[in-house]
Amino acid sequence: MEEKNTYIDKSKHTIHNSSNDLDLYLKALNSAYSGIIITDNMQYDNPIIYCNKAFETISGYSHNEIIGHNCRFLQAQDRSQPQRQLLKESIQRGEECKVEIRNYRKDGTLFWNELFISPVKNEAGQVTHFIGVQNDITARKKAEYDLREEKAHVELKIQERTKELQEKEIFLSSIIETVRESLLVLDANYIVLSANKHFLNSFKVSSEETLGKPLFELGMQQWNIKSLKELLTQILPTNNPVIDYEVDNIFPHIGRKVMLINAYRIEFEGHYKDRILIAFEDITEKKEQDQRKDDFLSIASHELKTPLTTIKGLVQILQRMSPDHSNDKFVSTLDKMSAYVDRLNLLITKLLDTSKIQSGHIELHMEPFDIDQTIREAIDNITLAVPGYEIQLSGTTGAIVQGDELQIIQVVNNLLSNAIKYSPDSNKVEVRMHKVANFVKISIRDYGMGINYQDRLKIFERFFRASHIQKKFPGLGIGLYVSHEIIANHNGTLWVESEPGEGSTFNFTLPITNNDESHGA
Predict the structure, then answer these.
(1) Which of 160, 190, 361, 449 lies at a C-alpha separation of 20 to 30 Å from 488?
(2) Which has the closest alpha carbon to 482: 491, 468, 494, 474?
(3) Continuous H helices in 67-185
(4) What is the CATH number of the domain that holds 191?
(5) What is the pTM of this model?
Protein backbone atom coordinates (compact mmCIF):
# COMPACT_ATOMS: atom_id res chain seq x y z
CA MET A 1 0.00 0.00 0.00
CA GLU A 2 1.36 3.43 -0.93
CA GLU A 3 2.38 5.47 2.13
CA LYS A 4 0.70 8.88 2.39
CA ASN A 5 2.16 11.95 4.01
CA THR A 6 0.20 15.16 4.48
CA TYR A 7 0.75 18.87 4.74
CA ILE A 8 -1.57 21.82 5.33
CA ASP A 9 -2.33 24.17 2.43
CA LYS A 10 -3.34 27.42 4.23
CA SER A 11 -4.80 29.04 1.09
CA LYS A 12 -7.50 26.37 0.75
CA HIS A 13 -7.38 24.73 4.17
CA THR A 14 -7.28 21.25 2.62
CA ILE A 15 -4.94 18.30 3.07
CA HIS A 16 -2.41 17.32 0.30
CA ASN A 17 0.22 14.61 -0.02
CA SER A 18 3.90 15.62 0.02
CA SER A 19 6.63 14.47 2.41
CA ASN A 20 9.15 17.08 1.28
CA ASP A 21 6.66 19.94 1.59
CA LEU A 22 5.67 18.74 5.07
CA ASP A 23 9.29 18.80 6.25
CA LEU A 24 9.75 22.25 4.76
CA TYR A 25 6.59 23.62 6.34
CA LEU A 26 7.42 22.16 9.76
CA LYS A 27 10.90 23.71 9.63
CA ALA A 28 9.36 27.03 8.66
CA LEU A 29 6.82 26.83 11.49
CA ASN A 30 9.58 25.98 13.98
CA SER A 31 11.58 29.03 12.86
CA ALA A 32 8.65 31.42 13.16
CA TYR A 33 8.72 34.24 15.72
CA SER A 34 5.04 33.71 16.52
CA GLY A 35 3.84 30.79 18.65
CA ILE A 36 2.09 28.22 16.47
CA ILE A 37 0.03 25.19 17.50
CA ILE A 38 -2.04 22.59 15.68
CA THR A 39 -4.96 20.86 17.38
CA ASP A 40 -6.78 17.69 16.33
CA ASN A 41 -10.50 18.50 16.03
CA MET A 42 -11.28 14.82 15.39
CA GLN A 43 -10.14 13.81 18.87
CA TYR A 44 -11.84 14.28 22.21
CA ASP A 45 -11.35 17.75 23.69
CA ASN A 46 -9.47 19.01 20.59
CA PRO A 47 -5.94 18.32 22.02
CA ILE A 48 -2.74 20.03 20.89
CA ILE A 49 -0.73 17.71 18.59
CA TYR A 50 2.00 20.15 17.50
CA CYS A 51 3.68 23.26 18.85
CA ASN A 52 6.69 25.17 17.58
CA LYS A 53 9.65 26.43 19.58
CA ALA A 54 8.26 29.96 19.84
CA PHE A 55 5.10 28.66 21.55
CA GLU A 56 7.27 26.87 24.14
CA THR A 57 9.25 30.08 24.73
CA ILE A 58 6.18 32.31 25.03
CA SER A 59 4.28 29.96 27.35
CA GLY A 60 7.23 28.75 29.42
CA TYR A 61 6.07 25.11 29.04
CA SER A 62 8.13 22.35 27.45
CA HIS A 63 6.95 20.33 24.43
CA ASN A 64 6.09 17.31 26.61
CA GLU A 65 3.98 19.47 28.95
CA ILE A 66 1.99 20.98 26.05
CA ILE A 67 1.14 17.99 23.86
CA GLY A 68 -2.24 16.46 24.73
CA HIS A 69 -3.63 19.53 26.52
CA ASN A 70 -6.52 21.67 25.35
CA CYS A 71 -5.48 25.27 24.63
CA ARG A 72 -7.57 26.56 27.52
CA PHE A 73 -4.92 25.46 30.02
CA LEU A 74 -3.09 28.75 29.29
CA GLN A 75 -5.92 30.72 30.94
CA ALA A 76 -5.39 28.86 34.27
CA GLN A 77 -8.09 30.06 36.70
CA ASP A 78 -8.91 33.21 34.71
CA ARG A 79 -11.98 31.59 33.13
CA SER A 80 -14.52 34.41 33.06
CA GLN A 81 -13.06 36.11 29.99
CA PRO A 82 -15.70 36.55 27.25
CA GLN A 83 -13.04 35.74 24.67
CA ARG A 84 -13.10 32.11 25.84
CA GLN A 85 -16.76 31.78 24.85
CA LEU A 86 -16.05 33.46 21.50
CA LEU A 87 -13.27 30.94 20.80
CA LYS A 88 -15.50 28.03 21.83
CA GLU A 89 -18.31 29.14 19.53
CA SER A 90 -15.93 29.70 16.59
CA ILE A 91 -14.45 26.21 17.02
CA GLN A 92 -17.93 24.68 17.18
CA ARG A 93 -18.88 26.48 13.95
CA GLY A 94 -15.51 25.68 12.32
CA GLU A 95 -14.77 29.37 11.69
CA GLU A 96 -11.76 31.65 11.90
CA CYS A 97 -11.42 33.82 14.96
CA LYS A 98 -9.15 36.56 16.34
CA VAL A 99 -9.07 37.56 20.00
CA GLU A 100 -6.87 39.31 22.53
CA ILE A 101 -6.89 37.20 25.68
CA ARG A 102 -5.11 37.01 29.03
CA ASN A 103 -2.84 33.96 29.33
CA TYR A 104 -0.47 32.73 32.04
CA ARG A 105 2.99 31.28 31.69
CA LYS A 106 4.12 28.16 33.53
CA ASP A 107 5.58 30.35 36.31
CA GLY A 108 2.19 32.04 36.75
CA THR A 109 3.07 35.39 35.14
CA LEU A 110 0.38 37.08 33.06
CA PHE A 111 0.89 37.85 29.40
CA TRP A 112 -1.51 39.23 26.82
CA ASN A 113 -1.93 37.03 23.78
CA GLU A 114 -3.12 38.07 20.33
CA LEU A 115 -4.56 34.77 19.07
CA PHE A 116 -5.63 33.80 15.55
CA ILE A 117 -7.32 30.43 15.00
CA SER A 118 -8.16 29.01 11.62
CA PRO A 119 -9.84 25.72 10.67
CA VAL A 120 -8.26 23.11 8.41
CA LYS A 121 -10.68 21.11 6.28
CA ASN A 122 -10.32 17.89 4.35
CA GLU A 123 -11.56 17.36 0.83
CA ALA A 124 -15.03 16.57 2.17
CA GLY A 125 -15.20 19.97 3.87
CA GLN A 126 -14.95 18.48 7.36
CA VAL A 127 -12.91 20.46 9.93
CA THR A 128 -10.11 18.11 10.98
CA HIS A 129 -7.66 20.48 12.65
CA PHE A 130 -7.24 24.04 13.88
CA ILE A 131 -4.14 26.18 13.51
CA GLY A 132 -3.49 28.71 16.26
CA VAL A 133 -1.01 31.58 15.90
CA GLN A 134 -0.23 33.66 18.97
CA ASN A 135 1.84 36.77 19.60
CA ASP A 136 2.81 38.20 22.98
CA ILE A 137 1.34 41.75 23.02
CA THR A 138 1.94 42.39 26.71
CA ALA A 139 4.30 45.28 25.97
CA ARG A 140 1.73 46.88 23.65
CA LYS A 141 -1.04 46.52 26.24
CA LYS A 142 1.15 48.02 28.91
CA ALA A 143 2.11 50.89 26.60
CA GLU A 144 -1.54 51.61 25.82
CA TYR A 145 -2.40 51.65 29.51
CA ASP A 146 0.55 53.88 30.39
CA LEU A 147 -0.38 56.32 27.62
CA ARG A 148 -3.93 56.65 28.91
CA GLU A 149 -2.67 57.20 32.43
CA GLU A 150 -0.18 59.83 31.36
CA LYS A 151 -2.72 61.80 29.37
CA ALA A 152 -5.10 61.92 32.32
CA HIS A 153 -2.72 62.71 35.16
CA VAL A 154 0.64 63.93 33.85
CA GLU A 155 1.59 66.62 36.35
CA LEU A 156 -0.18 65.12 39.34
CA LYS A 157 1.22 61.71 38.53
CA ILE A 158 4.80 62.98 38.54
CA GLN A 159 4.42 64.51 41.99
CA GLU A 160 2.63 61.52 43.46
CA ARG A 161 5.08 59.02 41.97
CA THR A 162 8.09 60.95 43.22
CA LYS A 163 6.77 60.95 46.77
CA GLU A 164 5.62 57.36 46.52
CA LEU A 165 9.01 56.18 45.23
CA GLN A 166 10.80 57.87 48.10
CA GLU A 167 8.49 56.32 50.66
CA LYS A 168 8.59 52.88 49.07
CA GLU A 169 12.35 52.93 48.72
CA ILE A 170 12.72 53.62 52.43
CA PHE A 171 10.08 51.00 53.24
CA LEU A 172 11.71 48.39 50.99
CA SER A 173 15.14 49.05 52.44
CA SER A 174 13.81 48.57 55.97
CA ILE A 175 12.13 45.30 54.99
CA ILE A 176 15.28 43.96 53.34
CA GLU A 177 17.32 44.79 56.42
CA THR A 178 14.92 43.30 58.96
CA VAL A 179 13.63 40.21 57.13
CA ARG A 180 14.93 36.91 58.57
CA GLU A 181 16.20 35.66 55.24
CA SER A 182 19.45 36.21 53.37
CA LEU A 183 18.92 38.64 50.47
CA LEU A 184 21.11 40.05 47.71
CA VAL A 185 20.31 42.62 45.01
CA LEU A 186 22.25 42.31 41.75
CA ASP A 187 22.52 44.60 38.76
CA ALA A 188 22.30 43.50 35.13
CA ASN A 189 25.95 42.36 35.23
CA TYR A 190 25.31 40.27 38.38
CA ILE A 191 27.31 42.61 40.58
CA VAL A 192 26.13 42.71 44.21
CA LEU A 193 24.51 46.09 44.86
CA SER A 194 23.26 45.35 48.38
CA ALA A 195 23.32 42.57 50.96
CA ASN A 196 21.13 42.56 54.04
CA LYS A 197 22.42 41.91 57.56
CA HIS A 198 21.02 38.39 57.62
CA PHE A 199 23.13 37.44 54.58
CA LEU A 200 26.30 38.92 56.08
CA ASN A 201 25.68 37.23 59.44
CA SER A 202 24.66 33.86 57.99
CA PHE A 203 27.69 33.55 55.72
CA LYS A 204 29.99 35.34 58.21
CA VAL A 205 31.25 37.85 55.62
CA SER A 206 31.65 41.64 55.62
CA SER A 207 30.17 44.26 53.32
CA GLU A 208 33.63 44.88 51.85
CA GLU A 209 33.87 41.22 50.84
CA THR A 210 30.44 41.29 49.21
CA LEU A 211 29.33 44.65 47.80
CA GLY A 212 30.58 45.53 44.33
CA LYS A 213 31.70 41.94 43.66
CA PRO A 214 30.25 39.61 41.01
CA LEU A 215 28.01 36.99 42.58
CA PHE A 216 29.91 34.19 40.85
CA GLU A 217 33.21 35.28 42.46
CA LEU A 218 32.03 35.50 46.08
CA GLY A 219 33.80 33.35 48.67
CA MET A 220 35.29 30.25 47.05
CA GLN A 221 33.14 30.83 43.93
CA GLN A 222 30.50 28.57 45.46
CA TRP A 223 27.75 30.19 43.34
CA ASN A 224 29.67 29.69 40.08
CA ILE A 225 27.64 26.63 39.10
CA LYS A 226 26.95 26.21 35.39
CA SER A 227 23.26 25.29 35.69
CA LEU A 228 22.58 28.03 38.27
CA LYS A 229 24.44 30.55 36.14
CA GLU A 230 22.32 29.68 33.11
CA LEU A 231 19.10 30.14 35.12
CA LEU A 232 20.18 33.49 36.56
CA THR A 233 21.29 34.85 33.19
CA GLN A 234 17.82 34.14 31.80
CA ILE A 235 15.91 36.12 34.43
CA LEU A 236 16.25 39.56 32.83
CA PRO A 237 15.63 38.67 29.16
CA THR A 238 12.79 36.20 29.84
CA ASN A 239 11.42 37.38 33.22
CA ASN A 240 11.38 33.72 34.32
CA PRO A 241 12.33 33.42 38.02
CA VAL A 242 14.59 30.81 39.59
CA ILE A 243 12.41 28.68 41.86
CA ASP A 244 13.73 26.44 44.66
CA TYR A 245 17.20 25.73 43.23
CA GLU A 246 19.31 23.69 45.69
CA VAL A 247 23.03 24.24 46.18
CA ASP A 248 24.91 21.68 48.27
CA ASN A 249 28.38 23.08 48.76
CA ILE A 250 31.20 23.89 51.19
CA PHE A 251 31.15 27.58 52.14
CA PRO A 252 34.01 29.48 53.75
CA HIS A 253 33.56 30.09 57.50
CA ILE A 254 30.37 27.96 57.82
CA GLY A 255 31.28 24.64 56.18
CA ARG A 256 28.98 22.37 54.15
CA LYS A 257 25.42 23.67 53.80
CA VAL A 258 22.41 23.08 51.60
CA MET A 259 20.98 26.37 50.36
CA LEU A 260 17.64 26.90 48.63
CA ILE A 261 17.77 29.75 46.11
CA ASN A 262 14.89 31.80 44.71
CA ALA A 263 15.58 34.71 42.37
CA TYR A 264 13.27 37.27 40.76
CA ARG A 265 13.55 40.26 38.49
CA ILE A 266 12.77 43.59 40.18
CA GLU A 267 10.74 46.25 38.38
CA PHE A 268 10.10 48.71 41.18
CA GLU A 269 8.20 51.48 39.37
CA GLY A 270 11.07 51.67 36.89
CA HIS A 271 13.49 52.65 39.69
CA TYR A 272 15.04 49.19 40.03
CA LYS A 273 14.60 48.10 36.44
CA ASP A 274 16.80 45.21 35.31
CA ARG A 275 17.85 44.20 38.81
CA ILE A 276 17.61 40.82 40.49
CA LEU A 277 16.60 39.96 44.04
CA ILE A 278 18.01 36.64 45.32
CA ALA A 279 16.86 34.94 48.51
CA PHE A 280 18.95 32.24 50.22
CA GLU A 281 17.41 29.79 52.69
CA ASP A 282 19.53 27.39 54.74
CA ILE A 283 17.69 24.05 54.53
CA THR A 284 20.56 21.88 55.77
CA GLU A 285 18.76 20.82 58.94
CA LYS A 286 15.49 20.24 57.12
CA LYS A 287 17.22 18.02 54.53
CA GLU A 288 18.86 16.02 57.29
CA GLN A 289 15.51 15.58 59.05
CA ASP A 290 13.86 14.48 55.80
CA GLN A 291 16.69 12.02 55.19
CA ARG A 292 16.28 10.57 58.68
CA LYS A 293 12.54 10.21 58.11
CA ASP A 294 13.13 8.51 54.75
CA ASP A 295 15.71 6.17 56.30
CA PHE A 296 13.27 5.28 59.07
CA LEU A 297 10.50 4.72 56.54
CA SER A 298 12.69 2.42 54.48
CA ILE A 299 14.02 0.44 57.46
CA ALA A 300 10.60 0.10 59.10
CA SER A 301 9.01 -1.07 55.86
CA HIS A 302 11.71 -3.68 55.26
CA GLU A 303 11.52 -4.90 58.86
CA LEU A 304 7.73 -5.25 58.65
CA LYS A 305 7.94 -7.25 55.42
CA THR A 306 9.57 -10.31 57.02
CA PRO A 307 7.08 -11.00 59.85
CA LEU A 308 4.20 -10.11 57.54
CA THR A 309 5.33 -12.72 55.02
CA THR A 310 5.52 -15.26 57.84
CA ILE A 311 2.02 -14.37 59.05
CA LYS A 312 0.67 -14.69 55.51
CA GLY A 313 2.23 -18.14 55.20
CA LEU A 314 0.80 -19.29 58.52
CA VAL A 315 -2.68 -18.09 57.55
CA GLN A 316 -2.45 -20.00 54.27
CA ILE A 317 -1.38 -23.15 56.17
CA LEU A 318 -4.38 -22.80 58.49
CA GLN A 319 -6.67 -22.36 55.50
CA ARG A 320 -5.34 -25.51 53.87
CA MET A 321 -5.45 -27.51 57.13
CA SER A 322 -8.99 -26.54 58.09
CA PRO A 323 -11.36 -29.55 58.10
CA ASP A 324 -13.98 -29.93 55.40
CA HIS A 325 -16.80 -29.21 57.85
CA SER A 326 -15.14 -26.32 59.67
CA ASN A 327 -17.21 -23.78 61.50
CA ASP A 328 -18.30 -20.95 59.19
CA LYS A 329 -17.06 -18.35 61.65
CA PHE A 330 -13.63 -20.02 61.75
CA VAL A 331 -13.37 -19.99 57.92
CA SER A 332 -14.57 -16.39 57.59
CA THR A 333 -12.12 -15.28 60.29
CA LEU A 334 -9.22 -16.83 58.38
CA ASP A 335 -10.41 -15.16 55.16
CA LYS A 336 -10.58 -11.78 56.89
CA MET A 337 -7.09 -12.30 58.34
CA SER A 338 -5.77 -13.07 54.85
CA ALA A 339 -7.48 -10.00 53.36
CA TYR A 340 -6.11 -7.68 56.07
CA VAL A 341 -2.61 -9.13 55.67
CA ASP A 342 -2.85 -8.47 51.92
CA ARG A 343 -4.00 -4.91 52.59
CA LEU A 344 -1.13 -4.32 55.01
CA ASN A 345 1.31 -5.82 52.53
CA LEU A 346 0.07 -3.42 49.82
CA LEU A 347 0.48 -0.46 52.17
CA ILE A 348 4.05 -1.47 53.03
CA THR A 349 4.82 -1.91 49.32
CA LYS A 350 3.64 1.65 48.65
CA LEU A 351 5.77 2.95 51.51
CA LEU A 352 8.78 1.15 50.04
CA ASP A 353 8.04 2.65 46.62
CA THR A 354 7.95 6.11 48.22
CA SER A 355 11.27 5.46 49.95
CA LYS A 356 12.89 4.28 46.70
CA ILE A 357 11.66 7.34 44.81
CA GLN A 358 12.97 9.73 47.48
CA SER A 359 16.37 8.04 47.53
CA GLY A 360 16.54 7.82 43.73
CA HIS A 361 16.77 4.01 43.78
CA ILE A 362 13.56 3.21 41.92
CA GLU A 363 14.27 0.52 39.34
CA LEU A 364 12.88 0.60 35.81
CA HIS A 365 12.81 -2.51 33.63
CA MET A 366 12.38 -0.85 30.26
CA GLU A 367 10.95 -3.04 27.52
CA PRO A 368 8.58 -2.36 24.62
CA PHE A 369 4.95 -3.30 25.24
CA ASP A 370 1.49 -2.81 23.72
CA ILE A 371 -0.08 0.02 25.73
CA ASP A 372 -3.61 -0.74 24.47
CA GLN A 373 -3.45 -4.32 25.68
CA THR A 374 -1.98 -3.24 29.01
CA ILE A 375 -4.81 -0.76 29.62
CA ARG A 376 -7.47 -3.33 28.68
CA GLU A 377 -6.01 -5.97 31.00
CA ALA A 378 -5.81 -3.49 33.90
CA ILE A 379 -9.46 -2.55 33.38
CA ASP A 380 -10.48 -6.23 33.24
CA ASN A 381 -8.73 -6.91 36.57
CA ILE A 382 -10.37 -3.94 38.28
CA THR A 383 -13.77 -4.94 36.87
CA LEU A 384 -13.42 -8.42 38.36
CA ALA A 385 -12.49 -6.94 41.75
CA VAL A 386 -15.35 -4.39 41.72
CA PRO A 387 -18.15 -5.94 39.65
CA GLY A 388 -20.70 -3.25 40.51
CA TYR A 389 -18.83 -0.57 38.54
CA GLU A 390 -19.06 0.10 34.82
CA ILE A 391 -15.69 1.06 33.30
CA GLN A 392 -16.19 2.31 29.75
CA LEU A 393 -13.16 2.14 27.44
CA SER A 394 -13.00 4.09 24.19
CA GLY A 395 -10.31 4.74 21.60
CA THR A 396 -7.17 2.89 20.53
CA THR A 397 -3.60 3.97 19.88
CA GLY A 398 -1.99 0.93 18.23
CA ALA A 399 1.20 2.16 19.85
CA ILE A 400 4.22 0.44 21.36
CA VAL A 401 5.61 2.10 24.49
CA GLN A 402 9.11 1.61 25.89
CA GLY A 403 8.81 1.31 29.64
CA ASP A 404 8.26 -0.75 32.76
CA GLU A 405 4.88 -2.35 32.09
CA LEU A 406 4.30 -3.38 35.71
CA GLN A 407 4.81 0.18 36.92
CA ILE A 408 2.46 1.57 34.26
CA ILE A 409 -0.14 -1.01 35.36
CA GLN A 410 0.41 0.20 38.93
CA VAL A 411 -0.38 3.77 37.81
CA VAL A 412 -3.55 2.72 35.95
CA ASN A 413 -4.72 0.57 38.87
CA ASN A 414 -4.19 3.44 41.29
CA LEU A 415 -6.05 5.97 39.11
CA LEU A 416 -8.95 3.57 38.52
CA SER A 417 -9.14 2.64 42.21
CA ASN A 418 -9.21 6.33 43.17
CA ALA A 419 -11.90 7.04 40.57
CA ILE A 420 -14.09 4.35 42.16
CA LYS A 421 -13.19 5.18 45.76
CA TYR A 422 -13.94 8.90 45.51
CA SER A 423 -17.18 8.49 43.53
CA PRO A 424 -19.47 6.90 46.15
CA ASP A 425 -22.64 8.11 44.40
CA SER A 426 -21.67 6.96 40.91
CA ASN A 427 -21.04 3.58 39.29
CA LYS A 428 -19.38 4.71 36.06
CA VAL A 429 -15.79 5.50 35.09
CA GLU A 430 -14.69 6.48 31.57
CA VAL A 431 -11.25 5.62 30.13
CA ARG A 432 -10.10 7.12 26.84
CA MET A 433 -6.99 6.23 24.84
CA HIS A 434 -5.65 8.49 22.08
CA LYS A 435 -2.51 8.91 20.04
CA VAL A 436 -1.44 12.56 20.24
CA ALA A 437 1.57 13.41 18.05
CA ASN A 438 4.37 11.10 19.23
CA PHE A 439 2.66 10.40 22.57
CA VAL A 440 -0.16 8.23 23.84
CA LYS A 441 -2.66 10.00 26.10
CA ILE A 442 -4.69 8.07 28.66
CA SER A 443 -7.61 9.85 30.35
CA ILE A 444 -9.56 8.43 33.32
CA ARG A 445 -12.71 10.34 34.24
CA ASP A 446 -14.93 9.83 37.27
CA TYR A 447 -18.19 11.46 38.30
CA GLY A 448 -17.29 11.96 41.95
CA MET A 449 -16.85 14.89 44.31
CA GLY A 450 -14.13 16.69 42.37
CA ILE A 451 -11.09 18.63 43.64
CA ASN A 452 -10.82 22.36 44.35
CA TYR A 453 -8.07 24.54 42.88
CA GLN A 454 -5.88 24.79 45.99
CA ASP A 455 -5.89 21.00 46.47
CA ARG A 456 -5.14 20.43 42.77
CA LEU A 457 -1.90 22.39 43.19
CA LYS A 458 -0.67 19.88 45.79
CA ILE A 459 -2.47 16.69 44.78
CA PHE A 460 0.73 14.95 43.59
CA GLU A 461 2.83 15.84 46.64
CA ARG A 462 3.97 13.09 48.99
CA PHE A 463 1.52 12.39 51.85
CA PHE A 464 -0.87 15.15 50.72
CA ARG A 465 -4.60 14.47 51.08
CA ALA A 466 -7.38 16.85 50.09
CA SER A 467 -8.98 18.52 53.10
CA HIS A 468 -12.54 17.35 52.40
CA ILE A 469 -11.66 13.62 52.16
CA GLN A 470 -9.25 13.11 55.07
CA LYS A 471 -11.91 11.99 57.56
CA LYS A 472 -14.34 10.33 55.16
CA PHE A 473 -11.86 8.20 53.18
CA PRO A 474 -8.83 6.45 54.75
CA GLY A 475 -5.40 6.64 53.13
CA LEU A 476 -1.84 7.97 53.39
CA GLY A 477 -1.71 10.19 50.29
CA ILE A 478 1.13 8.38 48.53
CA GLY A 479 -0.59 6.69 45.57
CA LEU A 480 -0.76 9.78 43.35
CA TYR A 481 2.76 10.80 44.37
CA VAL A 482 4.16 7.42 43.32
CA SER A 483 2.11 7.48 40.10
CA HIS A 484 3.37 10.98 39.23
CA GLU A 485 7.00 9.97 39.75
CA ILE A 486 6.59 6.77 37.70
CA ILE A 487 5.16 8.69 34.75
CA ALA A 488 7.87 11.36 35.08
CA ASN A 489 10.55 8.64 35.03
CA HIS A 490 9.01 7.46 31.73
CA ASN A 491 9.38 10.99 30.23
CA GLY A 492 5.63 11.55 30.37
CA THR A 493 3.36 13.90 32.31
CA LEU A 494 0.48 13.25 34.71
CA TRP A 495 -2.06 15.98 35.44
CA VAL A 496 -5.62 16.43 36.67
CA GLU A 497 -8.57 18.49 35.48
CA SER A 498 -11.34 18.87 38.03
CA GLU A 499 -13.99 21.12 39.55
CA PRO A 500 -15.76 20.56 42.90
CA GLY A 501 -18.93 18.54 42.39
CA GLU A 502 -18.19 17.78 38.74
CA GLY A 503 -15.80 14.83 39.01
CA SER A 504 -12.16 14.59 37.97
CA THR A 505 -10.20 13.58 34.90
CA PHE A 506 -6.66 12.29 35.43
CA ASN A 507 -4.57 12.31 32.25
CA PHE A 508 -1.11 10.99 31.53
CA THR A 509 1.06 10.83 28.43
CA LEU A 510 3.83 8.43 27.47
CA PRO A 511 6.22 8.77 24.52
CA ILE A 512 5.69 6.27 21.70
CA THR A 513 8.58 4.01 20.75
CA ASN A 514 9.68 4.72 17.19
CA ASN A 515 10.13 1.93 14.67
CA ASP A 516 13.91 1.81 14.98
CA GLU A 517 13.74 1.43 18.76
CA SER A 518 11.06 -1.26 18.64
CA HIS A 519 13.02 -3.30 16.10
CA GLY A 520 16.18 -2.88 18.09
CA ALA A 521 14.45 -4.09 21.22
Answers:
(1) 449
(2) 494
(3) 82-93, 138-178
(4) 3.30.450.20
(5) 0.47
- Given 282, 309, 343, the domain boundary residue is 282
312 in a structural domain: yes
Return the DSSP state at 408. H
| Local confidence pLDDT in tens for the 521 residues of the chain | 344 444 444 444 444 445 667 778 778 888 888 999 999 999 999 999 999 999 999 999 999 999 999 989 999 889 899 999 999 999 999 999 999 999 999 999 999 999 999 999 999 999 999 999 999 999 998 888 888 777 777 777 667 766 766 666 666 666 666 667 888 888 889 999 888 888 888 889 998 989 999 999 988 888 888 888 888 888 888 888 888 888 888 888 888 888 899 998 887 655 556 888 899 988 888 877 766 666 656 555 555 666 766 777 777 777 777 766 677 777 777 777 777 676 666 666 666 665 555 555 566 778 999 999 999 998 988 888 787 788 999 999 999 999 988 889 889 988 998 898 888 888 899 999 999 989 999 999 999 888 888 888 888 887 676 665 655 655 566 778 888 988 998 999 999 999 888 899 999 999 998 644 444 43
Instruction: Tell me whether residue 127 is in a domain.
Output: yes
Q: For residue 449, is it within any domain?
A: yes
Amino acid at 122: N
327 C-beta neighbours (distance < 10 Å), count: 10
**CATH number for the domain harbouring residue 431:** 3.30.565.10
| Range of the structural domain that residue 496 is part of | 367-520
**Between β-strands 428-436 and 400-403, what pairing exists: parallel, antiparallel or unpaired?**
unpaired
Instruction: Count structural domains, the chain.
Output: 4
Max intra-chain CA distance, the chain: 100
